[in-house]
Amino acid sequence: MGAYETVIGLECHVELSTRTKMFCPCANTFGAEPNTNTCAVCLGHPGTLPVPNREAIARIVKIGLALGSEIAPHSIFHRKNYFYPDMPKNYQISQYDLPLCVGGHLDVELADGSTTRVGITRVHMEEDTGKTQHGSESGRIHDATHASIDFNRAGVPLVECVSEPDIRSPEEAAAYLRELRATLASLDVSDVKMEEGSLRCDANVSLRSIGAEAFGTKVEIKNMNSIRSLERALTYEIGRQAAALDAGEPIVQETRHWNEDAGATASMRSKEEAFDYRYFPEPDIPAIDPDPTWVEEIRATLPELPRARRDRYVADLGLKPEVARVLVGDRASVALFEGALVEGVDPVPAATWVTQDVAALRHAGEEGALTSAHVVDVVRLIAAGTVSNAGAKQALEASFTTGERVGDAVERLGLTQVSDAGKLGALADEVLAENPDVVQKFRDGKDGVIGYLVGQLMQKAAGAANPKVAQELLRERLQG
Fold it and tell me: Which partner for 446 in 248, 280, 400, 441 could form a disulfide, CB atoms 3.0-4.6 Å apart?
């Protein structure tokens, strides 16, 4: 790669979490029985007319404002014509040369702490397609014997965020997608679940000689359903293109499919140009001319965006940057953490619990009953010495299932720490009597062996001893 510079641009498709579809009153829900959320409009029956979803348009304006885009004073829908079985009308209602949001940028924090700015070309509105499942072992069309089509997704409001070709590595691309996902989550416009397809990403990647101004031939990569897949696919494709250029082989402009299992891209089809879609203005939908007052009303609803929130957490609350990054990347975690802060809890341990043990429970694939109150309970019970970290984790797991307060779970499970100096003092005497060699090592200057003695005392107390009190009592006896 020493001779080449990588040029990457991302096209991210965001399904909006509106109650209904973009141009009809059908429910916009994931996981319904196939072909149950459909009607004559989204199935493209003759004589039906689309009616734009006002809430969907408000949400794309919100996205554009958050990305610093200009909200176009005049925007129209177009018909994007092509025949796919998952498009009932044989065309998609989209936007072409007059998108609703133009320009903008996203500042992306990289792993080394530096920041890069990625330009936004456009943010436009369209409708999603249906979903085709190919009857083959690989799930791909080439070896399929049949296909099943579910039109529930056809007509769901879809926003496409197109970046400038400002990204220079797979790592930068992954960081951009994380930041975009966190931004969209903070706006509450989509659930941004990549595993369910509500956030999807296509990548355009090309190579050019170092110092060259002209772009190389770009290749589009599809079927990346996670940030990890995006990074792996780009890494593979960059290597493939570099090897071809080194061998004097031309790069063909095409769309390639990412195969997660094989860890490789494969050719799907030659890349279409805009004229292949025969765009023309949608005759059944009037132009969108947003009222500036309405746009400003939407601007007033913008929340604190992820970068500003991370900076505040680090500067004002003392969180480590890496903890703040993980915390802000998940909307539910932010809600739990902010709720705990309202109760005046210490933010540093609260953030640690939310991003580690609480997150692990929430991501285990089960429904749980944890609230901010449970985070507050854990932090305060540990600070008071009522329960150990291990005991608090066990009680939290129980609360996740039952919904009971953590303190109640501690009591019910017998996890309360013993801090009584009389009880622990007797155990400390036993430990020292049973380990004279370790006692001598401590008195010879090997302070680290105190941890072993504390562990022995904890074992005698069946894990219920307060380790801080246990260590204090042992030190008193050893130094006495």
Answer: 441
| Beta-carbon count within 10 A of 120 CB | 22
Say what the pLDDT of residue 133 is. 83
| 370 vs 357: CA distance, rounded Å | 11
Determine what percent of the chain is predicted with pLDDT higher than 90. Answer: 78
Q: Which residue has the tokens 């005698």?
A: 460
* Paired strand residues for 262: none
Count Cα neighbours of 202 within 13 Å in the Cβ-side half-sphere: 16
CB 56 within 8 A of CB 16: yes
Residues 6+ apart with CB under 8 A from 452: 435, 438
Which residues are 157's β-sheet partners?
127
Give tens-digit pLDDT for 157-180: 999 999 999 999 999 999 999 999
The dihedrals phi and psi of 150, each to the nearest 5 degrees, come to -115, 115
How far, in Å, are 57, 125, 127, 157 from residue 93 at the CA level?
Answer: 14, 9, 6, 10
Contacts of 329 (CB under 8 A, 6+ apart): 178, 181, 182, 306
| Greater model confidence, 49 or 388 | 49
DSSP code at position 85? T
Beta strands 254-259 and 219-224, pairing class: parallel
- In angstroms, the CA 186 to CA 301 distance is 11
Strands 78-81 and 105-109 come out as unpaired
Q: List the single range of 165-174, 286-295, 442-451 with lowest mean pLDDT.
A: 442-451
Q: What is the pLDDT of residues 337-378, one digit of tens each?
A: 999 999 999 999 999 999 999 988 887 655 577 899 999 999
Closest residue by Cα to residue 375 from 356, 365, 366:
356
